[in-house]
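user: can you give me the structure for this one chain? C-alpha coordinates are fine.
assistant: on it. calling the predictor now.
[tool input]
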Amino acid sequence: MNGRMYDPLIGRMLSPDPYTHGIAGTQGFNRYSYALNNPLKFTDPSGENPIFLGMMIRAIISMYSVAITDIATGHMTSGWQFLGHMAVGTAAGAVGASIGVGAVGVLEGAVYGAASGFVGGAGSAWVRGASTSEIFRQGFRSTAICAATNGISGFLKAKRLGLDPMTGKGWVESNYAPGDFVPEGDPTGYGLDNSNLTEYAWKTFPKTALHLTYASCSPEAIGNAGMNFENHYLDGLQLMAKGEDGTSFAVEGAHIFGRNRMFNRVGSYILISPNAAGYSGNLYKAMGHELFHSFHHFSGAWSDIGQGGSDYAAYRWNASISANPSSYAEILNSLPYPITSHAILPPWVNQYSYYSAFSKIFLGR
Protein backbone atom coordinates (compact mmCIF):
# COMPACT_ATOMS: atom_id res chain seq x y z
CA MET A 1 0.00 0.00 0.00
CA ASN A 2 2.95 2.35 0.68
CA GLY A 3 0.79 4.55 2.93
CA ARG A 4 1.82 5.93 6.31
CA MET A 5 0.48 4.02 9.33
CA TYR A 6 -1.39 5.85 12.10
CA ASP A 7 -1.36 4.89 15.79
CA PRO A 8 -4.63 6.10 17.40
CA LEU A 9 -3.29 5.52 20.93
CA ILE A 10 -0.56 8.15 20.68
CA GLY A 11 -2.32 10.24 18.05
CA ARG A 12 0.70 10.21 15.71
CA MET A 13 1.88 8.66 12.48
CA LEU A 14 4.51 5.94 12.91
CA SER A 15 6.68 7.29 10.10
CA PRO A 16 7.52 10.88 9.15
CA ASP A 17 5.87 12.69 6.26
CA PRO A 18 8.37 13.01 3.37
CA TYR A 19 7.03 16.50 2.66
CA THR A 20 6.83 19.70 4.72
CA HIS A 21 3.60 21.64 4.38
CA GLY A 22 2.86 25.25 5.21
CA ILE A 23 6.09 26.76 6.50
CA ALA A 24 4.08 29.65 7.96
CA GLY A 25 2.50 27.49 10.64
CA THR A 26 3.56 25.07 13.32
CA GLN A 27 1.73 21.91 12.30
CA GLY A 28 3.28 21.97 8.85
CA PHE A 29 6.59 21.10 10.53
CA ASN A 30 5.19 18.25 12.60
CA ARG A 31 5.90 15.42 10.20
CA TYR A 32 4.37 12.83 12.53
CA SER A 33 0.93 14.47 12.56
CA TYR A 34 -2.07 13.63 10.38
CA ALA A 35 -3.64 16.30 8.15
CA LEU A 36 -2.06 19.17 10.11
CA ASN A 37 -3.72 17.82 13.28
CA ASN A 38 -7.04 18.98 11.82
CA PRO A 39 -8.90 15.86 10.62
CA LEU A 40 -12.27 17.65 10.74
CA LYS A 41 -11.04 20.01 8.03
CA PHE A 42 -8.67 17.86 5.96
CA THR A 43 -8.28 14.24 4.90
CA ASP A 44 -5.00 12.78 3.69
CA PRO A 45 -5.24 9.13 2.48
CA SER A 46 -1.50 8.81 1.82
CA GLY A 47 -0.54 10.94 4.82
CA GLU A 48 1.60 13.10 2.56
CA ASN A 49 -0.32 16.08 1.13
CA PRO A 50 -2.98 17.67 3.35
CA ILE A 51 -2.85 21.15 1.81
CA PHE A 52 -3.72 20.07 -1.72
CA LEU A 53 -6.36 17.69 -0.45
CA GLY A 54 -7.82 20.40 1.74
CA MET A 55 -8.22 22.67 -1.27
CA MET A 56 -9.80 19.92 -3.35
CA ILE A 57 -12.18 18.89 -0.58
CA ARG A 58 -13.31 22.49 -0.14
CA ALA A 59 -13.78 22.77 -3.90
CA ILE A 60 -15.89 19.61 -4.04
CA ILE A 61 -17.99 20.54 -1.01
CA SER A 62 -18.60 24.05 -2.32
CA MET A 63 -19.35 22.82 -5.82
CA TYR A 64 -21.86 20.20 -4.80
CA SER A 65 -23.54 22.08 -1.97
CA VAL A 66 -24.22 25.12 -4.13
CA ALA A 67 -25.04 23.06 -7.20
CA ILE A 68 -27.59 20.93 -5.33
CA THR A 69 -29.26 24.07 -4.00
CA ASP A 70 -29.40 25.63 -7.47
CA ILE A 71 -30.79 22.46 -9.03
CA ALA A 72 -33.48 22.23 -6.36
CA THR A 73 -34.50 25.87 -6.88
CA GLY A 74 -34.25 25.75 -10.67
CA HIS A 75 -31.30 28.14 -10.92
CA MET A 76 -28.87 25.63 -12.47
CA THR A 77 -29.34 26.21 -16.19
CA SER A 78 -26.08 24.96 -17.75
CA GLY A 79 -22.96 22.93 -17.27
CA TRP A 80 -20.96 26.15 -17.29
CA GLN A 81 -22.55 27.09 -13.98
CA PHE A 82 -21.46 23.74 -12.55
CA LEU A 83 -17.86 24.43 -13.63
CA GLY A 84 -18.18 27.93 -12.23
CA HIS A 85 -19.08 26.56 -8.81
CA MET A 86 -16.03 24.29 -9.00
CA ALA A 87 -13.76 27.25 -9.83
CA VAL A 88 -15.19 29.31 -6.98
CA GLY A 89 -14.82 26.42 -4.56
CA THR A 90 -11.21 25.92 -5.61
CA ALA A 91 -10.41 29.62 -5.13
CA ALA A 92 -12.04 29.64 -1.70
CA GLY A 93 -10.21 26.43 -0.86
CA ALA A 94 -6.85 27.98 -1.79
CA VAL A 95 -7.45 30.92 0.52
CA GLY A 96 -9.02 28.76 3.22
CA ALA A 97 -6.10 26.34 3.24
CA SER A 98 -3.83 29.21 4.18
CA ILE A 99 -6.12 29.90 7.14
CA GLY A 100 -5.60 26.48 8.64
CA VAL A 101 -1.82 26.76 8.24
CA GLY A 102 -0.68 30.35 8.74
CA ALA A 103 -3.19 32.47 10.64
CA VAL A 104 -2.13 33.15 14.23
CA GLY A 105 -4.18 35.47 16.42
CA VAL A 106 -7.68 36.90 16.16
CA LEU A 107 -6.79 39.63 13.66
CA GLU A 108 -4.97 37.36 11.22
CA GLY A 109 -7.64 34.71 11.44
CA ALA A 110 -10.33 37.29 10.78
CA VAL A 111 -8.49 38.74 7.76
CA TYR A 112 -7.85 35.35 6.15
CA GLY A 113 -11.36 34.21 6.98
CA ALA A 114 -12.88 37.35 5.51
CA ALA A 115 -10.92 36.90 2.28
CA SER A 116 -11.95 33.27 1.93
CA GLY A 117 -15.55 34.01 2.88
CA PHE A 118 -15.96 36.83 0.39
CA VAL A 119 -14.48 34.78 -2.46
CA GLY A 120 -16.80 31.88 -1.70
CA GLY A 121 -19.95 33.88 -1.00
CA ALA A 122 -19.72 36.47 -3.76
CA GLY A 123 -18.35 33.98 -6.28
CA SER A 124 -21.19 31.53 -5.76
CA ALA A 125 -23.76 34.31 -6.10
CA TRP A 126 -22.09 35.51 -9.30
CA VAL A 127 -22.14 31.99 -10.79
CA ARG A 128 -25.89 31.82 -10.08
CA GLY A 129 -26.40 35.00 -12.05
CA ALA A 130 -27.37 37.13 -9.06
CA SER A 131 -27.59 40.90 -9.30
CA THR A 132 -24.64 43.05 -8.33
CA SER A 133 -26.25 44.03 -5.04
CA GLU A 134 -27.02 40.39 -4.23
CA ILE A 135 -23.44 39.35 -5.07
CA PHE A 136 -22.09 41.85 -2.58
CA ARG A 137 -24.73 40.98 -0.01
CA GLN A 138 -23.85 37.28 -0.14
CA GLY A 139 -20.14 38.09 -0.13
CA PHE A 140 -20.35 40.30 2.95
CA ARG A 141 -22.56 37.84 4.80
CA SER A 142 -20.09 35.02 4.15
CA THR A 143 -17.25 37.38 5.07
CA ALA A 144 -18.73 38.06 8.51
CA ILE A 145 -19.31 34.39 9.28
CA CYS A 146 -15.85 33.21 8.15
CA ALA A 147 -14.06 36.13 9.80
CA ALA A 148 -15.68 35.29 13.15
CA THR A 149 -15.02 31.54 13.01
CA ASN A 150 -11.43 31.88 11.82
CA GLY A 151 -10.76 34.67 14.29
CA ILE A 152 -11.61 32.19 17.03
CA SER A 153 -9.32 29.61 15.41
CA GLY A 154 -6.48 32.14 15.29
CA PHE A 155 -7.06 33.03 18.94
CA LEU A 156 -6.77 29.40 20.03
CA LYS A 157 -3.64 28.84 17.95
CA ALA A 158 -1.92 31.90 19.42
CA LYS A 159 -2.79 30.83 22.97
CA ARG A 160 -1.38 27.36 22.34
CA LEU A 161 1.88 28.83 21.00
CA GLY A 162 2.22 31.31 23.85
CA LEU A 163 1.85 34.36 21.56
CA ASP A 164 -0.44 37.39 21.81
CA PRO A 165 -4.01 36.15 21.20
CA MET A 166 -5.05 39.26 19.27
CA THR A 167 -2.06 39.89 17.01
CA GLY A 168 -0.16 36.59 17.07
CA LYS A 169 3.00 38.52 17.90
CA GLY A 170 5.42 37.87 20.76
CA TRP A 171 8.00 35.29 21.64
CA VAL A 172 8.93 32.56 24.10
CA GLU A 173 12.58 32.32 25.09
CA SER A 174 14.73 29.81 26.97
CA ASN A 175 18.40 29.55 27.97
CA TYR A 176 21.04 26.85 28.29
CA ALA A 177 23.10 27.64 31.39
CA PRO A 178 25.24 24.63 32.38
CA GLY A 179 27.49 26.50 34.81
CA ASP A 180 31.07 27.74 34.52
CA PHE A 181 32.37 27.50 30.97
CA VAL A 182 34.93 24.73 30.41
CA PRO A 183 36.25 24.26 26.84
CA GLU A 184 35.44 20.82 25.43
CA GLY A 185 36.54 19.35 22.13
CA ASP A 186 38.55 20.76 19.24
CA PRO A 187 38.54 24.40 18.06
CA THR A 188 35.84 24.98 15.45
CA GLY A 189 36.77 28.35 13.98
CA TYR A 190 33.31 29.71 14.76
CA GLY A 191 32.96 33.00 16.59
CA LEU A 192 32.02 36.60 15.99
CA ASP A 193 33.77 36.65 12.61
CA ASN A 194 31.89 33.55 11.46
CA SER A 195 28.56 34.00 13.13
CA ASN A 196 26.17 32.02 10.92
CA LEU A 197 25.65 28.62 12.56
CA THR A 198 22.51 27.69 10.65
CA GLU A 199 24.28 25.41 8.18
CA TYR A 200 26.14 23.73 11.04
CA ALA A 201 22.84 22.95 12.78
CA TRP A 202 21.17 21.69 9.62
CA LYS A 203 24.10 19.39 8.76
CA THR A 204 24.90 18.15 12.28
CA PHE A 205 21.36 17.53 13.53
CA PRO A 206 19.22 15.71 10.93
CA LYS A 207 16.00 17.33 9.72
CA THR A 208 16.39 20.51 11.77
CA ALA A 209 16.03 22.51 8.55
CA LEU A 210 12.32 21.74 8.90
CA HIS A 211 11.94 23.97 11.95
CA LEU A 212 15.07 26.06 12.58
CA THR A 213 14.93 29.50 10.95
CA TYR A 214 18.34 30.90 11.87
CA ALA A 215 21.22 30.26 14.28
CA SER A 216 24.17 32.49 15.08
CA CYS A 217 26.55 33.64 17.80
CA SER A 218 25.89 37.28 16.91
CA PRO A 219 22.79 39.01 18.35
CA GLU A 220 23.02 41.60 15.57
CA ALA A 221 22.95 38.93 12.87
CA ILE A 222 19.84 37.35 14.36
CA GLY A 223 18.25 40.79 14.62
CA ASN A 224 18.84 41.26 10.90
CA ALA A 225 17.29 37.82 10.30
CA GLY A 226 14.05 38.86 11.96
CA MET A 227 14.18 38.42 15.75
CA ASN A 228 15.81 40.53 18.46
CA PHE A 229 17.21 38.90 21.61
CA GLU A 230 16.34 41.89 23.78
CA ASN A 231 17.29 40.14 27.03
CA HIS A 232 20.70 38.96 25.83
CA TYR A 233 24.01 40.66 25.14
CA LEU A 234 27.68 39.82 24.69
CA ASP A 235 30.32 40.50 27.31
CA GLY A 236 33.39 39.88 25.20
CA LEU A 237 32.98 36.29 23.98
CA GLN A 238 30.51 35.38 26.73
CA LEU A 239 26.76 35.46 26.08
CA MET A 240 24.83 37.00 28.96
CA ALA A 241 21.10 36.83 29.76
CA LYS A 242 19.08 39.28 31.85
CA GLY A 243 16.86 37.77 34.53
CA GLU A 244 13.45 39.06 35.58
CA ASP A 245 15.05 40.68 38.64
CA GLY A 246 17.44 42.66 36.45
CA THR A 247 20.54 40.62 37.22
CA SER A 248 22.61 39.06 34.45
CA PHE A 249 24.02 35.54 34.21
CA ALA A 250 26.22 33.65 31.74
CA VAL A 251 24.61 31.21 29.29
CA GLU A 252 26.01 29.07 26.49
CA GLY A 253 22.89 29.20 24.33
CA ALA A 254 19.46 30.78 24.00
CA HIS A 255 16.37 30.04 21.92
CA ILE A 256 13.51 32.29 20.88
CA PHE A 257 10.34 31.14 19.19
CA GLY A 258 7.94 33.76 17.85
CA ARG A 259 7.73 36.81 15.59
CA ASN A 260 7.83 40.60 15.75
CA ARG A 261 5.10 41.52 13.28
CA MET A 262 1.80 40.21 11.95
CA PHE A 263 1.44 38.29 8.68
CA ASN A 264 5.00 37.07 9.00
CA ARG A 265 6.41 33.61 9.45
CA VAL A 266 6.59 32.35 13.02
CA GLY A 267 10.27 31.51 13.40
CA SER A 268 12.70 29.62 15.59
CA TYR A 269 16.01 31.39 16.34
CA ILE A 270 19.05 30.14 18.27
CA LEU A 271 21.85 32.24 19.74
CA ILE A 272 25.08 30.49 20.81
CA SER A 273 27.73 32.11 23.01
CA PRO A 274 30.88 32.77 20.92
CA ASN A 275 33.13 30.97 23.41
CA ALA A 276 30.87 27.87 23.27
CA ALA A 277 30.76 28.07 19.47
CA GLY A 278 34.55 28.00 19.43
CA TYR A 279 34.84 24.37 20.66
CA SER A 280 33.20 21.34 19.08
CA GLY A 281 31.97 19.74 22.32
CA ASN A 282 30.45 22.92 23.74
CA LEU A 283 28.86 23.86 20.41
CA TYR A 284 27.29 20.43 19.99
CA LYS A 285 25.79 20.43 23.51
CA ALA A 286 24.50 24.00 23.36
CA MET A 287 23.05 23.71 19.86
CA GLY A 288 21.41 20.36 20.55
CA HIS A 289 19.86 21.67 23.76
CA GLU A 290 18.31 24.68 22.04
CA LEU A 291 17.15 22.57 19.10
CA PHE A 292 15.10 20.53 21.57
CA HIS A 293 13.09 23.67 22.31
CA SER A 294 12.80 24.47 18.62
CA PHE A 295 11.56 20.96 17.89
CA HIS A 296 9.05 20.99 20.74
CA HIS A 297 7.52 24.24 19.51
CA PHE A 298 7.10 23.10 15.94
CA SER A 299 5.99 19.56 16.79
CA GLY A 300 3.24 20.93 19.06
CA ALA A 301 4.69 19.19 22.14
CA TRP A 302 5.39 22.55 23.82
CA SER A 303 1.67 23.15 24.36
CA ASP A 304 1.54 19.89 26.36
CA ILE A 305 4.76 20.01 28.38
CA GLY A 306 5.55 23.73 28.64
CA GLN A 307 8.89 25.37 29.35
CA GLY A 308 9.75 23.09 32.30
CA GLY A 309 9.02 19.88 30.43
CA SER A 310 11.01 20.98 27.40
CA ASP A 311 13.94 21.95 29.67
CA TYR A 312 13.77 18.55 31.33
CA ALA A 313 13.91 16.74 28.00
CA ALA A 314 16.79 18.92 26.74
CA TYR A 315 18.91 18.59 29.90
CA ARG A 316 18.30 14.86 29.95
CA TRP A 317 19.68 14.72 26.41
CA ASN A 318 22.72 16.70 27.59
CA ALA A 319 23.17 14.13 30.36
CA SER A 320 22.85 11.23 27.92
CA ILE A 321 25.83 12.46 25.85
CA SER A 322 27.91 13.58 28.84
CA ALA A 323 30.88 11.71 30.28
CA ASN A 324 29.52 12.62 33.73
CA PRO A 325 25.70 12.36 33.45
CA SER A 326 25.17 12.49 37.22
CA SER A 327 26.32 16.15 37.13
CA TYR A 328 22.87 16.94 35.69
CA ALA A 329 20.99 15.30 38.55
CA GLU A 330 20.45 18.52 40.52
CA ILE A 331 18.97 20.51 37.65
CA LEU A 332 16.82 17.58 36.48
CA ASN A 333 15.44 17.13 39.98
CA SER A 334 14.44 20.81 39.99
CA LEU A 335 12.41 20.50 36.78
CA PRO A 336 8.93 18.99 36.29
CA TYR A 337 8.96 15.56 34.72
CA PRO A 338 6.92 15.78 31.48
CA ILE A 339 4.53 12.84 31.63
CA THR A 340 3.17 13.23 28.10
CA SER A 341 4.79 14.36 24.89
CA HIS A 342 8.44 14.52 25.92
CA ALA A 343 8.69 10.96 24.57
CA ILE A 344 8.40 12.47 21.06
CA LEU A 345 12.11 12.99 20.63
CA PRO A 346 13.92 14.82 17.82
CA PRO A 347 15.24 12.57 15.05
CA TRP A 348 18.91 13.07 15.98
CA VAL A 349 18.47 11.58 19.48
CA ASN A 350 19.77 8.13 20.31
CA GLN A 351 16.75 6.85 22.20
CA TYR A 352 18.64 4.06 23.95
CA SER A 353 21.21 6.39 25.49
CA TYR A 354 18.54 8.98 26.24
CA TYR A 355 16.38 6.63 28.30
CA SER A 356 19.27 4.69 29.84
CA ALA A 357 20.58 8.01 31.18
CA PHE A 358 18.09 7.60 34.04
CA SER A 359 20.10 4.86 35.72
CA LYS A 360 23.37 6.73 35.13
CA ILE A 361 22.04 9.97 36.59
CA PHE A 362 19.93 8.86 39.54
CA LEU A 363 21.32 5.42 40.34
CA GLY A 364 24.97 6.17 39.63
CA ARG A 365 25.52 3.22 37.31
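assistant: here you go. Residues 132-161 form the longest helix (30 residues). The beta strands are 6-7, 12-13, 170-176, 214-216, 232-235, 238-242, 248-251, 253-259, 267-272.
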